[in-house]
Amino acid sequence: MKFCSECGSTVTTAVPAGDNRPRHVCTACGTIHYQNPKIVTGCIPVWAEQVLLCRRAIEPRKGLWTLPAGFMENGESAQEGAARETLEEANARVRVEQLYTTFNLPLISQVYLLFRGSLEDTDFFPGEESLEVALFREEGIPWDELAFPVVRETLKLFFQDRHSGVFVPRVGDIRWKSDRRGEYQVRMLDGERG
Ligand SMILES: [Zn+2]
Question: What's the gap in Å between 26 CA and the centre of ligand 1?
Fold first, then answer.
């Protein structure tokens, strides 16, 4: 941030009184511009044994498959956002059920909330951000062509839980290994694996 969104003056970086970390502070009006993590909301749309995935038409990870998800908008709930993203990316109507995975991505300051959901019909087609939208059975999931670690981890848990018949809400952290791009580490709240 270079300029204050309140008055247009330049901002500086300083630790405000009573705070413990550097913030963008306006040199003229004194407004402190806090920057906090963003919430990404989305869902796992299910139709019988199949899960709906979208192939991305936009960067990052263009051409790879993902669950419908995106940044939450002001004025909506996380579950409303999940349904909206499913409609925008796949033109699919979904009944959002329970929260399933919560993943923290501290290195990019994002929190993913992914809900389980039921498709209301199969009249879906690609939205502007998707090249293709399709239903996949577990054996057909394109594991090597998934866009994001959070999608891979959520789908792994989803099929694991579906086999056991009980969907357990999960919380985990995903961090990339600094030395090798693409490799990442997952730490679930109830254990660790990588
Ligand atoms: Zn200002």
Answer: 5
